[in-house]
Amino acid sequence: MQLYSQLSKISFSLRTTTTAFAGWLLFSPAVWAQEGDAPASQNMLVKTWVSLGPAYAITFLIMSIILVALVVRSILAVQKSNFIPDDLVQGIEASLGEKNAQAAVDLVQADESFLGQVLGAGLGKLQKGKEAAMEAMQVAGESEIMKSEHLLGYLALIGNIAPMVGLLGTVQGMVASFGKIASSPQTPKPNELAGGIEQALYTTLVGLLLAIPAIVIYNILRNRVQRHVLTAGVQSEDLLEKFQPFVK
Question: Is-contact 152 159, C-beta < 8 A?
Fold first, then answer.
């Protein structure tokens, strides 16, 4: 039920965000301002596709699909239950309260969450002393942090690449326009230069529209990971203290 609730919230959030973004994209005068003689009924998606050209349109489309998939997976990955499961903490405390340390250890070893992996590493070294256990927990924690942030790194990658692809299209469009000027014996008409300039502007625009949300979401989720990691670290140290009286 908890996973179903999380998926429902994520789905609702994505639908709301997509609807708002699409509305802004289609109706914002600042983004889609057209000349007065432009056909009012022209589909903006078709217009964008044509202006970008097949190569850039397909590239940005693929990046958009990957971005949405990464956002969904990342949101699921940074849930608190993946770092500090309430069932694990309650089970450990209940087992230790009943003086059944082995049952508590079994719970930790069977758990794959951040807390379970870190605490399990510490318990494996607890017989050598608390200092050795804390060192093992720190090493395990660093490894789990790398795993947690690995997926988020791809969000940052798209946030960095998208503007570069847009810049490449900008340079290519300007080169095409100035190439016509250089190769024409007479001054070219504005409509002959408009194609390259239009591609330059559209590639920059779409690149930024992909990069900005990618970077924002990356930073939000990364901050959430760091908050969960800090909480899990404090919780693991507290539970390790409760295991110490059972060490022979």
Answer: no
CB 156 within 8 A of CB 218: yes
Backbone angles phi, psi at 36, to 5 degrees: -60, -25
Cα 228 to chain centroid distance, Å, stands at: 16
Distance CA 242, CA 126 (A): 12
Residue 239: φ, ψ to 5°:
-70, -35
Contact yes or no for 212/160 (Cβ under 8 A):
no
Contact 78, 148 (CB under 8 A): yes
Burial (CB count within 10 angstroms: exposed 0-12, middle 13-18, buried 19+), residue 59: buried
Retrieve residue 34's tokens: 């057209």
Residue 26 tokens read as 């289609």
CA 112/CA 211 separation, integer angstroms: 33
- pTM for the full predicted model: 0.73
Each as own residue / partner, the long-range contacts of residues 102-110 (CB below 8 Å, 24 or more positions apart, any chain) are 104/243, 105/243
Could you give the CA distance from residue 102 to residue 91 in angstroms, rounded to a whole number?
12
What would the pLDDT profile of 214-235 be if each residue is shown by its tens digit? Answer: 999 999 999 999 999 999 999 9
- Distance between CA atoms of 135 and 94, rounded to whole angstroms? 26
Q: Which residues of 150-177 are buried (b: 16+ CB within 10 A; e: fewer)?
A: ebbebbbebbebbbebbeebbebbeeeb
The pair of three-digit structure tokens given for residue 64, joined into one six-digit string: 């958009």
Contact 83, 232 (CB under 8 A): yes
How do residues 108-130 score in pLDDT, each as one tens digit? 989 989 999 999 999 888 888 88
